[in-house]
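Project outcomes to date are best conveyed with an example. Our students and postdoctoral researchers have been running inverse folding experiments weekly, and each run begins with a structure described purely in C-alpha cells. The record below, which covers 136 residues, was selected by the lab manager from last quarter's runs and is presented without edits.
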C-alpha cells in the first residue's frame, strides 16, 4: 500500500515538473526591417490560416509549441489547421508555409525574409527579429 502511494506521489511530482516545459511564453516575430510594430492575435491568426498573404508564415514542425500556438491564437488544433491548408493548397489559393524543426531555425528564416512572420519561445528572441505580439 505504501509503495502504491509513493508511486502515485512520485508520478504526480514528475507531472508537475514536466508541465512547465510546454508552457513556454510564445511571441510572434517579424524581421526588424518589417514596418509592423504590433499585432492582435486575430490578425496574426489570419496569416497562419492562409486568410491573408500580406506576410509569409513560417511554421514549426508538429509539436507542443505549435499546438499551444494553434490553441491560443487560432482556437484550433493541428488537425483543423492542416485541413484548412490542404484545401487552400489543393484549390491553388495558397502555398503551405515552410516548416522548421526548432525555434532557432524559425528565427533564422524570419530574420532572412522581410515579409516573413513566425512564432518562437520568448526566451529565444534576440536582435535578429522583432516581437510584434506576446501570446496570452
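After processing, the design step wrote out the following sequence:
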Amino acid at each position: 500500500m505504501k509503495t502504491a502511494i509513493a508511486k502515485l506521489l512520485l508520478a504526480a511530482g514528475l507531472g508537475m515538473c514536466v508541465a512547465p516545459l510546454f508552457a513556454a511564453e510564445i511571441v510572434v516575430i517579424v524581421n526588424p526591417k518589417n514596418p509592423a510594430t504590433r499585432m492582435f492575435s486575430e490578425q496574426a491568426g489570419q496569416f497562419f490560416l492562409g486568410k491573408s498573404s500580406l506576410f509569409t508564415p513560417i511554421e514549426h514542425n508538429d509539436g507542443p509549441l505549435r499546438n499551444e500556438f494553434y490553441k491560443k491564437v487560432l482556437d484550433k488544433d493541428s488537425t483543423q489547421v492542416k485541413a484548412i491548408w490542404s484545401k487552400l493548397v489543393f484549390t491553388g489559393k495558397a502555398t503551405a508555409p515552410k516548416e522548421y524543426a526548432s525555434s532557432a531555425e524559425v528565427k533564422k528564416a524570419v530574420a532572412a525574409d522581410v515579409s516573413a512572420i513566425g512564432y518562437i519561445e520568448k526566451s529565444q528572441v534576440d536582435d535578429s527579429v522583432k516581437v510584434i505580439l506576446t501570446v496570452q
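The CA atoms of residues 2 and 19 lie 26 Å apart. Residues 2-18 form the longest helix (17 residues). The training component of this project remains on track.
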